[in-house]
Design goal:
By secondary structure, the chain is of the alpha/beta class. It has 13 helices and 19 strands. A 6-stranded mixed sheet has the order 11-6-1-2-3-12, with helices on both faces.
Length: about 425
Amino acid sequence: MHEQRRKQTIKRVALGALAMVLVALLGAAVWGYFFMRSVGAEIQTSEGARSELAEVVERPKPKEPFVILLLGSDVRPGDEVARADTIMVARVDMEQKQVSMLSIPRDTRVDIAGHGVAKINSAVAKGGPEGGPALMVRTVEDFLGIDVNYYMEIDFFGLQDIVDAMGGIWIDVDAEIDDWNAASHTPNHEAKYIAEGYQLLDGAHALTYVRSRDFPDADFTRMRHQQEFFRALAKQAGDMGNVLKIPSIVSELAGSITTNMEVGDLVYTAQTLRGMSPDDIYTATVMGEWRSPYVWTDEDLKEELVEIFLTGRSFEEEIVPPEPLDPSTISVAIRNGAGIAGSAGGAASILADMGYMIDEVGNANQFVYDETLIIYKDQSAAAAQVSAELPQGKVVSSRGMYIFDTDILVVVGKDWTGSTQTWDE
């Protein structure tokens, strides 16, 4: 009898403990639901910007690495609108827990569609209040030759709040900073001075650190500091003490974000990357030469950096050319998109002589293509190889806009300088 009562007591205790766990889980779920709703309401997601962005971005497939365009906006005394002071593309590989970040100088000389040559950071303003993000995405995609999946703009003042919510951030400051202009966010510019050395910066001084460009190479050192800041932020946000502060950190950040990412995607990404090693955060800058008023890009360096970026390798690794693909395994359709007689046949002959499978040679629906395009669905490496074989050709993703049954579609444009001839299979 005693043994039976003891078992019943143990059973009641176990059931009570289980009930407490269920109540705790339910409470956490309810709290999480309302917390997510409140955070989602604070994150700025302009419907106009989102609808237009939907036309230029493609959501990644599950578990597929994705590319996000990150802008850091800053308003200083005398500015009427926020400036895109920080422009960075990040490739996020959640399976490998790796992030590659490629910074673009804000004064980079680019051709903005419909607006001509201008500084890259002006694309947001030129697009208007609703179309700006979409135009910025298009401009960066054209400049780097990559596809962007998400867009996120962060107000620099939000970074200050995040650092304060974390209790400060440890940064190894490589050189003394004494910059009046960079400290305009504080009364009497009191956060203008930062000593050299490893130290804990509060939000005000951290913002001075990422804003300052008072260096011989100006923006290039500033971009390096911004990369170091994000590396330190990623490392220290994962510390146990800061994990407990995540709700307050997310709340501080929410009102400073404009994005087309869903709140659930943001939280899932943050959870998945938690514990990521700082050694798996790779950073580089698309360098160039300053010739007022622009930074003129080093095109060869840009191509090398983009290739490393897309493969998720460290920028510090020695660049090793990928193994060439067997041409006989790559099927190609070729269409004349410029009305230049024999141009499609000339391109077909070049590729056929190198062993590629030529499945179709003919005319495009319209002769309106200024550039020769090398179009792929999911074989970017094959497209890059075909492009290297032809006199010219810009590699682009199909995104469902082109209809073809082969691995690669070549549309010969008005820029064609290769041979022209009748194609005979």
